[in-house]
Specification:
Blueprint: E1 4-12, H1 16-36, H2 52-56, H3 61-64, E2 69-71, E3 77-79, H4 80-88, E4 96-103, E5 107-115, H5 120-128, E6 132-139, E7 144-149, E8 158-161, H6 167-173, H7 177-180, H8 186-195
Antiparallel strand pairs: 1-5, 1-6, 2-3, 4-5, 6-7, 7-8
Length: 196
């Protein structure tokens, strides 16, 4: 089972049809995810309905149907679909647990999970289609968080490891890491220690 990257994405586009396409894709995923929640994602699941990543950056049929093993950039052997997905989406599977949280004609906010890492290469492809994006993410289990954006020229994609006191984590989630995971802060620990 992978560590999940929890992603919150804001997409904007001048063409309301493209925002509508994103919304319709995610709403389809919401319905499909309800059926898949009890199923394992331990293997590559090919469906006739693409996910959000596949809707805009489709997996070529010759890759999806391949049983070939290929080497990744680190020289490890993987199924062809996995290497393609990592290279083109930044994650080995399409999105899971997708949900539209806010939407208008030219802007949409979506929450979703991806396996092991955020879909940064996919965002770059979306930018080529004219989308503006800002995505905040945290990768559970590996203590990494970040912000990916093309909306602010002074800020670029950031993906950093963080420690308990990371300002990046607090910026992404609006609270310190300890509080997010339910750990006491230093003042609470000091108060308990002074009672002893």
């Amino acid at each position: 089972m992978p560590n999940w990257s929890k992603n919150t994405l804001i997409l904007s586009h001048d063409d309301p049809r493209l925002i509508s396409r994103v919304r319709q894709t995610v709403e389809t995923l919401e319905s499909r995810d309800l059926l898949r929640r009890s199923e394992s994602q331990a293997s590559h699941v090919s469906t006739t309905v693409p996910g959000l990543l596949g809707e805009f950056v489709p997996e070529p049929p010759e890759v999806a149907n391949s049983t070939d093993m290929v080497l990744d950039e680190d020289g490890q052997s993987w199924p062809a679909w996995r290497v393609w997905a990592d290279d083109n989406w930044g994650t080995k599977w399409d999105v899971f647990s997708a949900l539209v949280t806010e939407s208008s004609d030219r802007r949409i906010t979506i929450g979703f999970d991806t396996a092991w890492s955020p879909p940064i290469p996919w965002l770059h492809r979306m930018a080529e289609l004219g989308f503006t994006y800002t995505m905040r993410f945290v990768v559970d289990g590996v203590q990494a968080a970040g912000i990916a954006t093309n909306a602010n020229p002074s800020r670029t994609d950031e993906y950093k490891d963080f420690d308990i006191d990371s300002p990046l984590f607090e910026e992404v989630f609006g609270m310190p890491w300890r509080k997010w995971y339910g750990y006491p802060d230093d003042d609470e620990i000091d108060a308990v220690d002074s009672v002893d």
